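[09:14] KT: can someone run the structure on this one? pasting the chain below
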Amino acid sequence: MTRPAVSRRRFLHVAAVAAGATAVPRPLRAQPKTIKVGVVSPITGAMAEVGGDCRLGAQLAADAINTAGGIKSMGGARLELLLADSETKVEVARSEADRLIGAGAQILTGGFHSAHVAAISSLAQQRRVPYVIDISGVDAITANIAKSVREGQQKVQYVYRNFPGLTIFGRNAVKYMTEIFREAGVSPKRVVVMYSNDLFGKNQSAGFEAAVKALSPGFEIVEMIPYPETAADLSTEMARAKALKPDIIAPVTRPVTAILLLEELAKQRVDVMGVISPGAPGLYEPGQIRQLKELIEHVMDAAPWPNYKSAATQKIAAEFGKRSNGRYFDASGAYAYEAVQVIGDVLERAASTDPDAIVAAIKKTNFAGGVTVSNGPVVFNEVGDNPNASTAMIQILGQKPRVVWPRDNAEQKFVFPRPKK
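[09:31] RB: done, structure tokens below
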């Protein structure tokens, strides 16, 4: 019996079907695109500990947004973090941010060190890439860019900050100190400020000094003592402070020099009622607490901080601890987390990655889902700052940082004056 002839078309169709059963994958459905977010952090160098916390905080927020369906207004687009290490060097921070933009970053965050943030800000403004600063307090960073836009030198402001500026730091520090002293029934009179002589330290200490003069509390700053950011010895500066017979030492310090300062304070037996920073990193980091032990107990710091009264923040903190081998969720992780939250909210409303559409959405931000102690939702004023960003007074109690003021946010009662050794 002769088989019927098979046409060439029929032969090719059958062959294709047969091959498809074993070798050719089925056509893929269209996948939601990704939105690239550049994150620059100091992962190596003197600030590696805080930089690692910042990076993890940003990643946790991106994961939460992606798990919840991504940016729904853009078809479920996922956030993809492009990561860079500034090596705790200004020039590297700028060059790495530039590399991330070249790699497709459509929005930036990160920085941490104020000098790094200033360098990234000028680049972001030049390259028309929106930049949501997670951590940096120097007021001039956003103020200078806003001024250039007002004066017509640039058309659009691309740089915005969720973190409190140093004016807020200074006023809050004076307010909290005054209230705590009143509650404790004591009246410290003499304050000596010791500060890291870098961009942050100079501006932070000057902001505190200005707030003391403006608010006229019951204490005065009797001396401002600078020291190098990379100081290896603070014996001379501490001897100078001791000679002034202070009631309060107010340090504005980086993590490494925080250790030197508190060790020298103990070594020279400086008799003070307390050590209270107007706001500085380095006085609550796990590494500093592990090394300093009792020397850092009862130290206070008027710092930005997570809102641990929030169940949502507690849940995030628990996940942060799991992913970081037990580190706690502090200002570094929390503000990096919140910056990415804000970015997600902005992108949802912008429904676009066009830089000017993103900026238009940033200006209309009213985000109430943050994780930090604040005075209200995240909003941005004409300078690009969040006026509702705030700080809390934290104190090392039982070798852990705890919020002790304002009263509504307090996790534990403060101890002041510090107990005599």
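[09:33] KT: thanks! The chain has 13 helices and twelve strands.
[09:34] RB: yep, looked fine to me
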